[in-house]
C-alpha cells in the first residue's frame, strides 16, 4: 500500500481501540489526509451517508475526528443484531443478507475482495489509514474467518499497536497472552503496547512495564489515564456504562442539570441509535431506564419532563417486552396523570401507534398514542432505503400546540433508517411522523433530530416553561472540542514520536 497504515488491536472488547484510533486520527489530520477503517463492526448504532449508504457510527466519529467525510469504504461490513443469533449484514453501505452467527458470509474470499476494494479506494484518496480491530485479537477459534483482526493484519501487513484495558485487571497477562497466541506473521508486526484506563500514579506500573518489554521485546508506548470521553458513544458497550434509573454518576454531577430538566430514555432490549439522545445529556439529566425499573425518579418520585422511546432492532419483540415488564403501563399512566410529553424516534415512533402487523399478518396493539399503523412486510432488510433528509416541520395546519408549538416551520436535518411501512393521517416532517391532537406525543423516523440545535433549544425552552422554571442554556461544547480534548490527553501520555516512526511518517 502506498498510504501509510496503522492497525490498532485490543486484548478484549472495550479495551479502548476506538478511542485510540479516534485520537490518532485527530492528531495526524493536522498534517495528513487521514481515513479510519474497520473491516467489520457489530453495532445497532449506524449512520447514513449523503448517498444513502449505511455505516457504523464508530467509524463516522473517527472520520469526523480526521476531518473526513464518512464513506462506507471506511467500514465495509456492518453487522446489526436482530435477535435469535441473527444479524443483518450490510456490505459497503447496502443490505446484503440476514445471517446466523458464525455464518455471515457465503465466501470469505469474496469478503476479502470487498475489503481490498474498500482499502484501494481509501488509498487513492488519503495519505494515512488508521485501522481498528474488533473484540480480542487472539480469538484462536476464529482465525480462519477473522477478517477484522488477523485478516486485516495479513491483508495490509500494517504495523500494529496492541491496547490493553487495565481496569479489567490482569492487563500484563492479557497483553502477553495475546502476543503468545497471535500467528507468527502477525506477531512480528506488533510494534508497541498501550495500556488504557489506568487510575493512579503510572510510576507504580514501571516494574511491570519493564518486565513486559523484556519478555516480549515490544515497547510500551504509553499509559492512558481513566478519562471520561466527551465524544459520542459508538456502540452498546458504551451504552451499558450509562447511568441507570435515578443514578447520577460522579462524572455527571454538576453537568447537564442547570436546566433543572429530567429526561427518561427507555432502555429497550434491542435499542438502536441511542446516540440520538446523547446531545441532550449536556443540557438535562438524562436517565436511561431499564424496563423493570421505575419511570419516576427514585430519589424525588417526580415524573420526568420528557419520555423518549428509541429505535429497536426487533420492534415487535421489544413491544412485547414493554408490555410484559409493565413499562408500557407506566408510560401510559404518566401520560394520563401528568400529560407527560412522549417522543418516539425510529421504531420507537411505530410502537406509539395503534397497531403493528408482522410479516405473517398477525396484528398486535401498540401504545395507541398516535394515529398510525405499521406493517412489517419482510423479515430482512429495510422496507425503505436509508436516506438523508432535510425537511420542514409542518404543524400549522394540524397541531400548533404542545411540543410543536415553538418549532413549526423549522427546517431539520437527519436520516431515515427503519423497518416496516407506517401510515399516518397527520405527518409532521414532510411525509414522515405523527403528532397527537394535543401536541404532547410526537413520532418521527428522523434520526439525528436533536442534533438540530434550533429544534433542541426550542424543545428544552418549552419543557422548562411547562415546568415553571427558567431555561438556562449550557455553554456549547462541540464534538470537535471533544476530539481536541481526547487528542491532548493522548499526546500527553503516549509517545507520538514513536508512532510517527512506526508508521514511517515524518
UniProtKB/TrEMBL annotation:
<dbReference type="InterPro" id="IPR004459">
    <property type="entry name" value="CobQ_synth"/>
</dbReference>
<protein>
    <recommendedName>
        <fullName>Probable cobyric acid synthase</fullName>
    </recommendedName>
</protein>
<keyword id="KW-0169">Cobalamin biosynthesis</keyword>
<feature type="domain" description="CobQ/CobB/MinD/ParA nucleotide binding">
    <location>
        <begin position="7"/>
        <end position="227"/>
    </location>
</feature>
<comment type="pathway">
    <text>Cofactor biosynthesis; adenosylcobalamin biosynthesis.</text>
</comment>
<dbReference type="InterPro" id="IPR033949">
    <property type="entry name" value="CobQ_GATase1"/>
</dbReference>
<comment type="similarity">
    <text>Belongs to the CobB/CobQ family. CobQ subfamily.</text>
</comment>
<dbReference type="Pfam" id="PF07685">
    <property type="entry name" value="GATase_3"/>
</dbReference>
<dbReference type="InterPro" id="IPR011698">
    <property type="entry name" value="GATase_3"/>
</dbReference>
<dbReference type="InterPro" id="IPR029062">
    <property type="entry name" value="Class_I_gatase-like"/>
</dbReference>
<dbReference type="InterPro" id="IPR002586">
    <property type="entry name" value="CobQ/CobB/MinD/ParA_Nub-bd_dom"/>
</dbReference>
<dbReference type="InterPro" id="IPR027417">
    <property type="entry name" value="P-loop_NTPase"/>
</dbReference>
<keyword id="KW-0315">Glutamine amidotransferase</keyword>
<feature type="domain" description="CobB/CobQ-like glutamine amidotransferase">
    <location>
        <begin position="262"/>
        <end position="455"/>
    </location>
</feature>
<feature type="active site">
    <location>
        <position position="447"/>
    </location>
</feature>
<dbReference type="GO" id="GO:0003824">
    <property type="term" value="F:catalytic activity"/>
</dbReference>
<dbReference type="InterPro" id="IPR047045">
    <property type="entry name" value="CobQ_N"/>
</dbReference>
<dbReference type="GO" id="GO:0009236">
    <property type="term" value="P:cobalamin biosynthetic process"/>
</dbReference>
<dbReference type="GO" id="GO:0015420">
    <property type="term" value="F:ABC-type vitamin B12 transporter activity"/>
</dbReference>
<comment type="function">
    <text>Catalyzes amidations at positions B, D, E, and G on adenosylcobyrinic A,C-diamide. NH(2) groups are provided by glutamine, and one molecule of ATP is hydrogenolyzed for each amidation.</text>
</comment>
<dbReference type="Pfam" id="PF01656">
    <property type="entry name" value="CbiA"/>
</dbReference>
Amino acid at each position: 500500500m502506498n498510504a501509510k497504515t496503522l492497525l490498532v488491536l485490543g486484548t478484549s472488547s472495550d479495551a479502548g481501540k476506538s478511542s485510540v484510533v479516534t485520537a490518532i486520527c485527530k492528531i495526524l489530520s493536522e498534517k495528513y489526509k487521514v481515513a479510519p477503517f474497520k473491516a467489520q463492526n457489530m453495532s445497532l448504532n449506524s449512520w447514513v451517508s449523503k448517498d444513502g449508504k449505511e455505516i457504523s457510527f464508530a467509524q463516522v466519529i473517527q472520520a469526523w475526528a480526521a476531518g473526513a467525510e464518512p464513506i462506507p469504504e471506511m467500514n465495509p461490513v456492518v453487522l446489526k443484531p436482530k435477535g435469535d443469533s441473527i444479524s443483518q449484514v450490510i456490505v459497503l453501505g447496502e443490505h446484503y443478507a440476514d445471517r446466523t452467527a458464525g455464518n455471515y458470509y457465503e465466501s470469505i474470499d469474496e469478503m476479502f475482495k470487498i475489503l481490498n476494494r474498500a482499502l484501494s479506494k481509501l488509498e487513492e484518496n488519503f495519505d494515512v489509514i488508521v485501522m481498528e480491530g474488533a473484540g480480542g485479537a487472539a480469538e484462536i477459534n476464529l482465525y480462519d474467518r477473522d477478517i477484522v483482526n488477523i485478516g486485516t493484519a495479513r491483508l495490509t501487513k500494517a504495523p500494529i499497536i496492541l491496547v490493553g484495558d487495565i481496569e479489567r485487571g490482569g492487563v500484563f497477562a492479557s497483553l502477553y497472552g495475546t502476543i503468545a497466541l497471535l500467528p507468527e506473521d502477525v506477531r512480528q508486526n506488533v510494534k508497541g503496547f498501550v495500556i488504557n484506563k489506568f487510575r493512579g500514579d503510572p510510576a507504580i506500573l514501571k516494574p511491570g512495564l519493564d518486565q513486559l518489554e523484556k519478555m516480549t521485546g515490544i515497547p510500551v508506548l504509553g499509559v492512558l489515564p481513566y478519562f471520561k470521553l466527551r465524544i459520542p458513544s459508538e456502540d452498546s458497550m458504551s451504552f451499558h456504562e450509562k447511568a441507570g434509573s435515578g443514578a447520577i454518576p460522579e462524572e455527571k454531577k454538576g453537568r447537564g442539570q442547570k436546566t433543572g430538566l429530567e429526561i427518561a430514555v427507555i432502555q429497550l432490549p434491542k435499542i438502536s441509535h441511542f446516540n440520538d439522545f446523547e446531545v441532550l445529556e449536556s443540557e438535562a439529566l438524562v436517565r436511561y431506564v431499564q424496563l423493570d425499573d421505575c419511570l419516576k425518579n427514585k430519589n424525588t418520585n417526580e415524573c420526568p419532563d420528557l419520555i423518549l422511546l428509541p429505535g429497536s432492532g426487533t420492534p415487535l419483540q421489544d413491544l412485547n417486552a414493554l408490555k410484559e415488564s409493565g413499562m408500557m403501563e407506566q408510560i401510559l399512566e404518566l401520560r394520563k396523570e401528568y400529560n407527560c410529553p412522549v417522543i418516539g424516534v425510529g421504531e420507537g415512533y411505530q410502537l406509539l401507534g395503534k397497531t403493528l402487523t408482522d410479516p405473517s399478518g398477525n396484528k398486535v396493539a401498540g401504545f395507541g398514542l398516535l394515529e398510525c399503523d405499521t406493517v412489517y412486510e419482510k423479515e430482512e432488510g429495510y422496507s425503505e432505503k436509508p436516506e438523508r433528509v432535510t425537511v420542514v416541520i409542518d404543524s400549522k395546519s394540524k397541531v400548533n400546540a404542545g411540543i410543536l408549538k415553538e418549532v413549526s416551520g423549522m427546517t431539520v436535518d437527519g436520516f431515515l433508517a427503519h423497518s416496516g411501512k407506517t401510515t399516518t393521517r397527520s405527518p409532521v416532517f414532510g411525509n414522515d411522523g405523527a403528532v397527537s391532537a394535543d401536541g404532547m406525543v410526537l413520532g418521527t423516523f428522523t434520526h439525528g433530530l436533536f442534533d438540530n440545535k434550533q429544534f433542541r433549544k426550542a424543545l428544552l425552552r418549552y419543557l422548562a416553561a411547562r415546568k415553571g422554571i427558567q431555561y438556562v442554556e449550557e455553554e456549547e461544547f462541540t464534538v470537535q472540542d471533544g476530539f481536541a480534548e481526547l487528542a491532548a490527553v493522548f499526546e500527553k501520555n503516549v509517545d507520538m514520536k514513536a508512532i510517527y516512526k512506526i508508521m514511517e511518517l515524518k
